[in-house]
């Protein structure tokens, strides 16, 4: 939290000014890969479920400082798994981080943002949703290898990857099966998504006005 404040100060970003009853949800929109194919439906369902307005932000279309400003006042941040979720460190205390995972990608194996949200002093709620409906995903086997393409692999290996239901544990970050799956586009199944949120959020996202952050001393690096 000290680092987030320091960064906002250095980038000359003022915190989003909000009225008491202006709670809103931010959804990260992606332009080229890892798309949420029914984004409009997702936004509507969030607005109806939580009685909050929803806004989208995009690293492809907006400068970083304006995205940080919006996120600094949000009650909830929803995004596909990806580096853009590091911006969750700018969320106010009491907010929620909702991370979406494509088909065959196990949230238990990719936990940097879950870890970030659970650090002492962050006071963020974290929920992961995973697509378990294969028909709701669109993969791109013919793209370049670093965007999830698998056309360069042996035919047998391609078929194994395509029929696999779960990416096995692997070393970051050039594993072709991992790349193939993480670059999928996803139709979010709204009923299961809302069910996961209802179960995962212990309380309605409630922005604590001021809670002193405890000092955290990292363990010795080995």
UniProtKB/TrEMBL annotation:
It comes from the Eukaryota. Keywords: Glycoprotein, Glycosyltransferase, Membrane, Transferase, Transmembrane, Transmembrane helix. Belongs to the glycosyltransferase 61 family. The gene is glyt. This is Glycosyltransferase. GO terms for molecular function: protein O-acetylglucosaminyltransferase activity. The keyword Transferase applies. The keyword Repressor does not apply. It is a single-pass membrane protein. It is found in: Membrane. GO terms for biological process: protein O-linked glycosylation via mannose. Residues 7-98 form the Glycosyltransferase 61 catalytic domain. One of its GO terms (cellular component) is membrane.
């Amino acid at each position: 939290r000290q680092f987030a404040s320091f960064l906002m100060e250095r980038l000359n970003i003022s915190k989003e000014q909000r009225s008491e009853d202006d709670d809103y949800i931010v959804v990260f929109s992606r332009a080229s890969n890892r798309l949420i194919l029914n984004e409009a439906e997702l936004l509507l369902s969030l607005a109806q479920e939580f009685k909050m307005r929803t806004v989208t932000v995009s690293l492809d279309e907006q400068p970083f400082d304006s995205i940080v400003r919006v996120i600094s006042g949000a009650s909830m941040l929803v995004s596909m798994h990806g580096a853009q979720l590091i911006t969750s460190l700018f969320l106010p205390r009491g907010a929620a981080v909702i991370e979406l995972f494509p088909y065959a990608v196990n949230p238990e194996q990719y936990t940097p943002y879950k870890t970030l949200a659970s650090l002492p002093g962050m006071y963020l709620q974290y929920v992961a949703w995973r697509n378990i409906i294969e028909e709701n995903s669109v993969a791109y086997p013919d793209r370049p290898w670093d965007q999830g393409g698998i056309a360069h692999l042996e035919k047998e290996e391609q078929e194994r990857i395509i029929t696999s239901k779960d990416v096995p544990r692997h070393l970051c970050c050039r594993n072709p099966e991992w790349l193939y799956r993480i670059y999928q586009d996803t139709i979010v199944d709204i009923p299961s998504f809302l069910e996961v949120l209802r179960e995962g959020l212990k309380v309605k996202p409630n922005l604590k006005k001021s809670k002193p952050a405890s000092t955290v001393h990292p363990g010795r690096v080995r």
